[in-house]
Every structure is written in structure tokens, then in C-alpha cells.
Write a structure and sequence with these properties.
This protein is mostly helical. The protein is built from 9 helices and 2 strands; from the N terminus they run H-H-H-E-E-H-H-H-H-H-H. The longest helix is centred in the middle third of the chain and has 18 residues.
């Protein structure tokens, strides 16, 4: 995949701007969860559409600390276990409380519902991202922008916690390390600094 065809990554200010914008709209909490599952967990549109509450809750039905993404919900055999980011967990918790009070029965459905159905499609998720980024004037961003941002940020920080690019590859659900590397946005300033350290 050529660089010119890749979705743009998001900086910290853009992530907060998008999150604030979504929170003020109709279905705000649900939409924030959709966005944060992309930017803070690196999920694909298909995975966001297919993830269910049992994949984020424990045996007692309480919100857990991990996304246990199954192969069925993912692309091919790229199911994986992803620790839940604090910001995402907070919004998931709000949505979970709402869903439990609204539906009043055991929650075993998909996390992302529409007003008409108990599920949605990957294409609907892609369309949501396209509309949000267009409304905010974020040119070159797509449903893959959050995923690329997550992978890039994880790659930059993984060595500070004793990990490697293999760990980022696992979090991304890629079978090949080369695929993960193609997702990572380069940093020209970091390249300049590292040369002086050699």
C-alpha cells in the first residue's frame, strides 16, 4: 500500500476535538465508543460493527479490562486480546449502563446498535467516520485513521514499557510484521534526532 493511499493519522488535539464533537451529537456516547474503539483500541470498521458485550465483560457480566475479540468478529484469524484504554473504558461503561437499563435483559448483543436494528454493518461504520471527518474538515481521514493512529502511537511507545514491534503486531491483529510497519507513520524529527545518537 503506497503512502499516498493511506489514511491520515490523528494528533492528540484532533482526537479530543472529535471526541468532544461526537459527545455533543445525538447518540453521542455510542458514537464516542465507535471512535475510541478505532483510535484507542485499533479496531477495524468490521470489528467495531461485530464486537459484542460478552467480548468486553467478565463472567459476572461486569465490564472487564480487555477486549476479547474473536476471529468471527475480526478479519480472517486476527482475533486477539486488547487491553482496554482508560478513556475507552469510561465511555464503554456509560454505554453499558444505558444499554442495561434500556433493554433490561442480559446483554449479549453487539455493542453498536442503530435505532432500527440491534446490529450495524462495517459499511455503516465507514460511512459514519466519513461523515464525521467531513463535518470537521479533516481531509484525508477515513475509518482507518484511528487504527493507523493507534498503531503508530503504540509503535512509538512500546519500547518504553519493555515491548517490541511484535507486541504492536499482535495488538493490530496482523499476521505479518511488514503489514504492521506499513501502518506506522514516520516522524522526520525523530529521524533527525536519532542520527545524532548514533
Amino acid at each position: 500500500m503506497g503512502l499516498e493511499k493511506q489514511a491520515k493519522t490523528l494528533n492528540r488535539n484532533q482526537i479530543e476535538m472529535i471526541n468532544t464533537y461526537l459527545g455533543a451529537k445525538r447518540n453521542g456516547i455510542r458514537n464516542q465508543v465507535i471512535f475510541l474503539m478505532s483510535a484507542r483500541a485499533g479496531l477495524r470498521a468490521k470489528e467495531i460493527a461485530n464486537i459484542t458485550w460478552p467480548m468486553v465483560t467478565d463472567a459476572n457480566g461486569e465490564l472487564g479490562d480487555f477486549i476479547n475479540l474473536t476471529n468471527i468478529a475480526s478479519k480472517g484469524k486476527s482475533g486477539r486480546i486488547i487491553p482496554i484504554n482508560k478513556q475507552l473504558k469510561s465511555k464503554l461503561s456509560e454505554l453499558y449502563i444505558h444499554e442495561k437499563s434500556y433493554y433490561r435483559h442480559d446483554i449479549s448483543s453487539r455493542i453498536v446498535r442503530t435505532e432500527r436494528t440491534d446490529a450495524t454493518s462495517a459499511q455503516a461504520i465507514v460511512n459514519m467516520f466519513q461523515r464525521w471527518y467531513s463535518d470537521l474538515g479533516l481531509i484525508g481521514c477515513s475509518s482507518h485513521s484511528g487504527r493507523r493512529t493507534f498503531i503508530t502511537n503504540a509503535a512509538k511507545k512500546i519500547s518504553t514499557v519493555g515491548g517490541s514491534l511484535r507486541d504492536v503486531q499482535f495488538l493490530a491483529g496482523h499476521t505479518s510484521l511488514q503489514t504492521t510497519q506499513r501502518y506506522i507513520e514516520g516522524d522526520s524529527e525523530a529521524r533527525m534526532k536519532v542520527v545524532d545518537l548514533i
